[in-house]
Amino acid sequence: MNASDIRSFPLLPALALAAAIAIALAGCERDEATAPATATPQPAPAPAEPPSHDIKPATDAVPATEETVEAAQEQLADAAKAAREKWRGKTFEEFEASVFKEPGEDGKYIVSGDLAITDRKHLQEFFDKLQQEDDETAHGKLTVAALAVAATATGGVDIWTSEKKKQLSYCVSDEFGERKPAVLTDMQAATQAWEAAANVDFTHAAVQDGNCTAGNQNVLFDVRPIDVDGQYLARAFFPSDGRTDRNVLIDNSSFELDPDETLQLVGILRHELGHALGLRHEHTRPEAGTCFEDGDFRPITAYDRFSVMHYPQCNGGGDWSLVLTGLDKAGSACLYGKGTSNTEDLDQCLFTAPDAPTTGTVETEVFDNQSVAQGEKKQHGSFTVKPGSIATIRMTGTGGASGDPDLYVRYLGPPDTTRWNCRPYLSHANETCELEVPGNRSKIHVMVRGYAAGSYKLEITYTKP
């Protein structure tokens, strides 16, 4: 399970129903991700054994009073301090060697139990912040909250644009074998639950199932099996993740759950698809009194301890059936509009995402044969855009060895390495920013910086006023 929520989300060291989280450090970026100075190397802690998935609801839930909230925050601070001490004087390479990494070329790094980090560059930032800050999550970017939605670096929210929300296509890998019919059935039930609540459309592109990989550009995301030996039951992604990171991965352990228990694959998928819509764990909110993660979320409704995004053992009120509550339905409609059978009162919305306007002239500007040296910053634009419209900035590597240029986009003036609204920050040249321009913004500024020297083509599609 994951970290995005119509609510919020905390750290659970052993639970790990994880969602892929693209770490986007708000205002804390460095020009270079450098390893800390090395003291005398000491043996790095060995990778943790895969956790047990004997997951049960809490039996001694406590009320979320000021005292219990304060106590839980102190426990989080103590845990963060212990984590910093554990790695003081160690190198990034030692840290990396201790972190569980999913198998395969595009496997994610799993830290703190259920945080999935997309790229080695993001892991370096995580390590740097882990040693410096009181927050073990290193200010990792998650999503909308409480319904809590993940907050972006600029105070926006990480949700699908008004165009993409109706085009949520996916494939289900044939590699599931004899388990595939069960996955298809449970995916259908899970997607229908969210479609009933919110104005979103999930579409199974069955013709793509035979090539259901992270590189398949004919679908928005892929659903695939993985064997991580119980490191997590399943994990998903957030809307701002790039295509190769938009996966719902289901571990073998999800098919070995006790059929007499309430925790089953269909509930896990309802939870994971909540993350895919931009929703964080509800229990990251202070009202939960435990299982905090960070404050990078925006409340969408009142706190709901029964939410599909709330782990029961984190002072939750529900069981592991993981079904949508009334506040889950209301919160998702606050973000996307009402679904096919949502009767909830949207006066409960603490935040409402505006629809993009349909008027205006769409224009694409192409910058061919571009290159940057290591450390060089090349500005493109500015571009005058219609407030509330959709802008897509796509960088593609060119040449045999395209290197590692990084894409930065910002509304209020030219971006740099500490100020940006979108920065995929991947270890290659293929990066995309898709943005719904805020209603109070009318320009986008684009920069490409050479993390390493690189060559690229830039395509900028936007709506002119």
General description of the model:
- It is a single chain.
- The protein has 2 domains: 1-353, Collagenase (Catalytic Domain) (3-Layer(aba) Sandwich), CATH 3.40.390; 361-464, Jelly Rolls (Sandwich), CATH 2.60.120.380.
- It contains 6 helices and 18 strands.
- It has helices at residues 66-87, 92-98, 120-132, 180-197, 265-276, 326-336, and strands at residues 19-21, 100-101, 109-111, 115-117, 144-145, 148-150, 168-172, 202-204, 221-226, 234-235, 247-251, 297-299, 361-372, 377-384, 390-397, 403-410, 431-436, 443-464.
- The strands form 4 sheets. Strands 13, 14, 15, 16, 17 and 18 form a 6-stranded antiparallel β-sheet that branches. The chain has a 5-stranded mixed β-sheet with strand order 8-7-9-11-10, covered by helices on one side.
- Strand 2 and strand 3 (109-111) form a beta hairpin.
- The longest helix has 22 residues, at 66-87.
- The model is unreliable at 2-60 and 134-155 (pLDDT under 50).
